[in-house]
Amino acid sequence: xxxxxxxxVANLAxxxxxxxxxxxxxxxxxxxxxxxxxxxxxxxxxxxxxxxAQSLAAHRSLLLGLLxxxxxxxxxxxxxxxxxxxxxxxxxGLVIHPCDHKDSxxxxxxxxxxxxxRMDGLxxxxxxxxxxxxxxxxxxxxxxxxxxxxxxxxxxxxxxxxDDVSAAKQVMQFLFDHGHKRIGFIQGVRQRSGTEMRYxxxxxxxxxxxxxxxxDLVAPGDFTFESGELAAQQxxxxxxxxxxxxxxNDYMAAGVLKAASQLRIPVPYELSxxxxxxxxxxxxxxxxxxxxxxxxxxxxxxxxELLIRQLKKHLEPPHKASDIHSELIVRExxxxxxxxxxx
Amino acid sequence: xxxxxxxxVANLAxxxxxxxxxxxxxxxxxxxxxxxxxxxxxxxxxxxxxxxAQSLAAHRSLLLGLLxxxxxxxxxxxxxxxxxxxxxxxxxGLVIHPCDHKDSxxxxxxxxxxxxxRMDGLxxxxxxxxxxxxxxxxxxxxxxxxxxxxxxxxxxxxxxxxDDVSAAKQVMQFLFDHGHKRIGFIQGVRQRSGTEMRYxxxxxxxxxxxxxxxxDLVAPGDFTFESGELAAQQxxxxxxxxxxxxxxNDYMAAGVLKAASQLRIPVPYELSxxxxxxxxxxxxxxxxxxxxxxxxxxxxxxxxELLIRQLKKHLEPPHKASDIHSELIVRExxxxxxxxxxx
DNA sequence: CTGAAAGCGCTTACAG
DNA sequence: CTGAAAGCGCTTACAG
Lengths: 343, 343
Description:
The structure is a homodimer of 343-residue chains.
Chain A: H1 6-13, H2 17-24, H3 32-45, H4 51-58, E1 63-68, H5 73-90, E2 93-98, H6 106-117, E3 121-124, H7 132-140, E4 145-150, E5 159-162, H8 164-177, E6 183-186, H9 193-208, E7 218-219, H10 225-236, E8 244-247, H11 250-262, E9 272-274, H12 281-284, E10 291-293, H13 296-311, E11 321-323, E12 327-329
Parallel strand pairs in A: 1-2, 1-3, 3-4, 4-5, 5-11, 6-7, 6-8, 8-9
Antiparallel strand pairs in A: 10-12
Helix pairs in contact in A: 1-2, 1-3, 5-13, 8-9, 10-11
Chain A binds a DNA duplex (16 and 16 nucleotides) through helix 2 and helix 4.
């Protein structure tokens, strides 16, 4: 296939390979004329530097690692798309690594992976972002890493984050605006920052609207469909059931739709349902789900860029963090209280 | 991190680096004693060969490429999981490459990708497996590739396949067994082998059961939710509507559920619905969807192994193809004709 | 069964 | 602004 080497280009241009190297790496101190000539030859010959040779000589792999442990395929492919975009833009390759955050061999496997790929840096996603042992391990081994995560406290690591508190408040405000006052809430897995932030958003929105918090309207969940179904059964069987349920993610919201169907409660006429994440499932349900779009691809691209900037000394220093906004997506599963929509 | 080199291991073992190389690559003609001693030192020092050096010296990247253009995230992550497993087992890395099979720059982008990564071989999935120009391009550039695809004709390329005809027949047989005689069918994108095979399965099953084919019961679709909804509306408004609808994939089956809901036709009491693929959405719908599990992870692992065998001369020659079976998953959306289930 | 020499295609550190 | 030399850590081709 492409077997042109840097030396070939250098010979054609009548310069040393070092000068070609300078052009490839965008180093300064090459005369414009020389640079142009070399670039022209690179284009003509379709020269592409050999990554293995670059890595070996420069003691860096030009590889980024992407670590995740998430049950949502849509989240994973969104992540990959974003990080790949950043990698492509800066000449990096990507090593994907699905893992199990509860596996006791996690660190051992990771040590193996890093040892064999020599990846230059990593992008981490929840719940791995909350694994102290993992973060310490990366620090000790001097592997730069950027986290993608809801921001719930000051972090010592570079971070790309969403503000899940305000996103949850948006959902609540939408429901208030449609006349709902008794709004149920289904929590996610405990001790995950996103879980806590969405719950805070729920509570703050109640307070901002002068509605007294009622702990009976809060049901536990673990982000699974089944837990959403159970939680909804609990909420809908209350003496004074809610007129709307806000689930901390879309899988649980799908479970709410199922529970409502079994209890013969028509959505959205007697119950409004909201989710979180804008998982594709939200579009395929009947009725379709009102939810919050989680801008995972943009987050991932930012995270990739942030990481690469850290790795490249001659680029500006990394931003400490960046905030990307979520967006409310209104669909059929929500409506005014006791709405009289046509069937 | 791990900065032990082959030379370090050789020095510790009192042999030349060539001998260590032989052990690492499982080459024959090393005395058992020497091999054991070297393996022991490798373990103690936690030595892992530098991939960049291996690639550079051996003129191969030890990288596999995975190409896909599929709207289903679950399909993509399933693929990746399988190919990654094969890669891990044989010391290969994986380069993932989402692409657009309708993009006119497809080949140009691919040329770029292959040139920059030097990937040793590729795994292709539909619809890329049916892109003649792409396959020719890979042949011309001498890049081994394995296809994952339904098998509808003799293929010149190594292939891992499912038999979608018999899988579709399984679905039909299940419906016949429950008394259905008028069964609607929603087709997928034209000229894709899976589409044609599932349709063949539908027709063959009718014939095998002595039921006359009725073209009014077949509606076109394109694998999207929306197309399934439209097709179902068409079928359900027939003078003699079907008592069951078999959609060529789960997204379209989800659309059928929506259409049924809007037409106030209760599923499964007055209509049974079947899909194909066992996409996660099938579990989250209400009612849950009866479908055919597409064993994509197993297919992908087989494809990866097949490809690696081709690349390694000292392993046995590649099997020409292998067949992996699909499995029917029965869920709530199907039942006997006019079933009187409890609500 | 084992090893010495050359080389893969780049970058680094230095010199000018 | 440019280049000559050494070297990154392996494999190849050969010799014994």
